[in-house]
Batch of 2 targets.
Target 1
Amino acid sequence: MATTNRAAKTAKPAEKYDGFTDDERGAMKERAKELKSARRSTKGDEEPAVLAKIAEMAEPDRTRAERIHAIVRANAPQLSPKLWYGMPAYARDGKVLCFYQAAQKFNTRYATFGFNDVASLDDGTMWPTAFAMTELSPADEAMIGELVRKAVG
């Protein structure tokens, strides 16, 4: 007599996992719009779009983003401001080197300033590439300026 696996027949189906949150899907949609807009743009100057996105942010993200924008522009004027997943980013040769992610973007308790792999921040076999921030002190601003200068090489 054949036996059947009763547990398999009576088990409740697992919850469906979509893979991405609504916020993540929204960020991907924003990125698709950015790419489409960049293809249409003949100028290549995305700074007005970055400043407009910063102006839309709620406090305190807006103030931090404005300060970071000023720091990056002062310390690495060769970087091009651009939108990246709906957030301010700064690129070299079209590749994002550093970025700011507002706390409100994913409803987190802190904002993030980070670097991608094109940044020259290598320090031994392990080094930080992103920094959480709840405030932006003068010492933090100085550190960001120093890191940006180092990142562009």
Note: The chain has a mean pLDDT of 89.
Target 2
Amino acid sequence: MKIVTDDLFKALADPTRRAILDELTEQSEQTLFEICTRLSVRHDVSMSRQAVSQHLAVLEAAGLVRTRREGRYKLHGLDTSPLRRIVERWPIPHIPEDHS
């Protein structure tokens, strides 16, 4: 079993980073400009593109965001596979259904 890293918890701890993950869940493969716009319009988060880029770097370090270049654009997409490590470390117990 892979150990759940501190990077993963650090990435999930910040509300702005969770909002970025929410936006990438709705629409993957977004540019930095698109993410900044969606954060501003949908989450009332106003910050510089540099600040959003730093949040993306934390998410990428945790493995939650993958980036790829397409021409002059850098596209950011969601990768939820690191979240499996949390469930593997602390499995959800089976709770029998109540058939009363």
Note: The longest strand covers residues 65-70.
